[in-house]
Amino acid sequence: MIRVLVAEDQSAVRAGLVLILGSAPDIEVAGEAADGEQAVALARELRPDVVLMDVQMPRLDGVSATRRVVAEQLADVLVLTTFDLDEYVFGALRAGASGFLLKNTEAKDLLAAVRTVAGGEGIVAPAVTRRLIAEFAAKPVREPTADPSVLEDLTRREREVLSCLGEGLSNAAIAERLDMAEATVKTHVSRLLGKLALRSRVQAAVLAQELGI
Asked: Where is the HTH luxR-type domain positioned along the sequence (predicted)?
């Protein structure tokens, strides 16, 4: 069973998420939090597999809560967002979130995303990834610019894969573009994440955009 903690301050939205998650035979709602402080406290107590985290919550915002949950290795975080909150999403990804979802995501896609993040892949809807990255690219970067020297340890192939991640491509799409097996792409992704000390391919996509590769 995949144990999920739902952190959302709007009770109606939270109830809807709980209902959807509870309908899946392989997913269990471990707890519910109405604010960021409670989300962190429950993550410490319950040790869920995934925290479904809203970005705007009282007492402690979702970005700060994500940073704490990730820093303490309490769970993987899947961020809930709307596109008028790009700066918050960017902060959450930099804080170590494994992925993100739009609040109007269909039920089946929500369940698939939770399973994906719980499985360690951290990729959610490549098309949405591309749109989000485009939104970031259109705005001034508020975070410090990434240091290009972080790429020095990457092989040529790993840099090519990182560039593809920056476009929001899936493993299958990267395999087709670079003419390699999908399993090989997964290996390259895992290695470059390790070398760059990143938790997810979404973080890698943002880094690729920051570095302009």
From this structure: 147-212
